[in-house]
Amino acid sequence: MDYLLQTMVAGLMLGGVYALVAVGLNLIFGVVKIINFAHGELVMAGMYLTWWLWSAWNMNPYVSLVIVTPVMFLAGIAIQKFILSPMQNSSPTMKIFVTLGLSVFLQNLALWMFGGQFRAVNFPWAEQNLSLLGINVTYGRLTAFIVALALVLALFYLMKRTLVGKVLNALVEDRETAGLIGIPVKKYYLAAMGIGISLAGIAGTLIIPFQAAYPLVGAHFTLLAFVVVVLGGLGNMAGSLLGGLILGIVETLAGTYVDPALQQVAVFVVFIIVLIVRPQGIFGGSARNAEVGLK
Amino acid sequence: MLEVMNISAYYGDAQALEDVTLSLPAHGVTAFLGPNAAGKSTTLRVVSGLIPAATGTIEFEGRDITGTSPQERVAMGIVHVPEGRRLFNTMTVEDNLILGGYTKRKDRKTAARLDEIYDHFPKLAERRKQEAGLMSGGEQQMCAVGRGMMAGPKVLMIDEMSLGLAPVIVKQMFAIVKGIAATGMSVLLVEQHVKNALEVADFGTIIDGGITRATGTAAELRESDVVRESYLGH
C-alpha cells in the first residue's frame, strides 16, 4: 500500500511537469491555431540549455531559469515571426509539416551540438529524499512539481483576470472579430508563442535534474502533451492540468507495476479509450472546442 | 467627416463593389440601405479596413486613410459592429465590453465608459457577469453595440442591427441608437428595411449592385420617386 502511494506521488510530481508542457501547447493551439509538433523539442532545448549552463558555467539548474525563461520566450517569438507568420495563409497541412520539420531540425541540431549520449545534470540536492508522512519524494521532483503547478496557476490567473488574458481568450474564440475591434492580433500571436514556448523550456529545466537529455527526448514530450490536451479538452486549460497529473500517475504506475517498457503503451491505452468514449475530452465540452479546429 | 469616394472592391476575382460613394456628417444617424447582396456589408468591411479598396479613397477628418490597418482605424474612431453581432460568446458581457475598449485601454477611463454604456443599456448592467452567448438576441445586439461604443467612436457603423430581432426590440434599439447619435457621434445604420430605417435616420444613402444609387436627407429619400418605386414598393 505504501509502495503504491509512493509510486502515485512520484507520478503526480512528474504529471505537474507534463501539465506545464501541455498548457503551453494548448495555448499556442488555441490562439495561433497551429499544432506545434516541435513542442517537445523545445522542452529538449530547455534541458540542453540548462545542462550546458551547468556543465560549462557550473550554474545551479534552478538558478538557470533566469536565463532559460527569457531565451525560450525569445525563441518562441522568433519561431512565430520568421517561421509560422509567413505561413499564416497556407494550408493546415503545410503548417503541420513546418512544425514537424522544425522538430526534426532541432533534433539534429542537438545531435550535432551535444552528441547522441545522455546528458545529465548531477545535482546532489535534487537526488535527496524528503520524507513526508512516510512517503519519500526527491527534492528534484518536488521542486519540479511545485514550480510547474505555480506556473500553471499563474497562467490561469493571467487568462482569467488580466487584459492580456482576455485578449488571448478572444483570439481563441474569434480572431477576425478581435482584429475588427482594434486588437493587434499578430502581436498577441507573438505573446502566445513566447509564453507557450518559455513554459516548455522551463519544464525542460525542471526535469533535467532527474531525467537526462538526449536528442530524441522531445518526441516523448510532444506525444504526452498531445495526449494531455486531448484528454483535458482542446482549449480547456484546467483540463490540461488535470490531464497532465493523471497521465503522470498512469505512466509511473504502469512503469512500476507492469513494465517500464510499457509506460507509453499505458499512456496510449488511456488516450484511445478517451477518444472512443469521450472524444471531446474528459473535461471538454466547452463551446469553444469547436473553434479550435485546424483552421 | 468620413468620405468614401468611388471605391470598388473584390473578393478574389468576384467584384463586390463597383462605385460606392458615401459621406458621413459629424453627427446624426445615416441609413445605409439597399437590397440583399447590394454591397452594404462589403462597404463596411472596406471602411473598417478588413478588405482593401481596389480603387477609390477613404478620407477621415480630412486625412486619407485608405491604406491604414483596421487597428489604426479603430484607434482613430471608426468602429464597425459586425453583422451577426460576433460576440465572444464564452466570455462575460463585461469582458466583451472591456475588450471593445482595447484601443483606449491606457486612458484610465474604462470604468467611466462602462458606466456610460450601462446608462444607455440598463439591461447590460443587469447581465454584466453573464456569458454573452447565453443572452437573448436583443441583449446580444445591445452588447455588440456597447462593445463598439467602448472604443470611443466618432463613427459607429452598425451592420444589420435589426436582423432576427422582434419588432418591439428593433424599435427600442433604434431609439437607443438615436440617443447615442445625439451624444455627438455619427452612426451609420446598415439596414435592409428601407422604410423603417428612413424613419429613424437623418440622412440616407442607397446602394444596389455595388453602386451608389441615391443619397440625401432621410426626408428627401422618403419623397423621392425613384426610391419609392424601387425600394419602398409603393
Tell me the major beta sheet of chain B: 6 strands, mixed
Shape by Cα distribution of chain A: globular
What structural class do you assign from the helix and strand content of chain A?
mainly alpha
CATH class of chain A: Mainly Alpha
Strand content of chain A: under 5%
> DSSP helix count of chain B?
10
Q: Pairing-aware structural class of the strands and helices of chain B?
A: alpha/beta
What low-confidence regions of chain A span 5 or more consecutive residues with pLDDT below 50?
286-295
Strand content of chain B: 25-35%
Number of strands of chain A: 2
CATH architectural designation of chain A: Orthogonal Bundle
CATH class call of chain B: Alpha Beta
Describe the main β-sheet of chain A briefly. Answer: 2 strands, antiparallel
Helix-strand pattern of chain B: EEEHEEHEHHHHEHEHEEHH
Give average pLDDT of chain B, whole number.
91
How large, in whole angstroms, is the Cα Rg of chain B? 17 Å
- The side-by-side strand order for the widest beta sheet of chain B comes to 6-7-8-3-9-10
Percent range of helical residues of chain A = over 70%
The H-level CATH homologous superfamily of chain B, spelled out, is P-loop containing nucleotide triphosphate hydrolases
Annotation field: number of helices of chain A: 12
End-to-end distance of chain A, in Å? 48 Å
Summary keywords:
heterodimer; A: about 300 residues; mainly alpha; ABC transporter involved in vitamin B12 uptake, BtuC; 12 helices; disordered C terminus; B: about 230 residues; alpha/beta; 6-stranded mixed sheet; globular
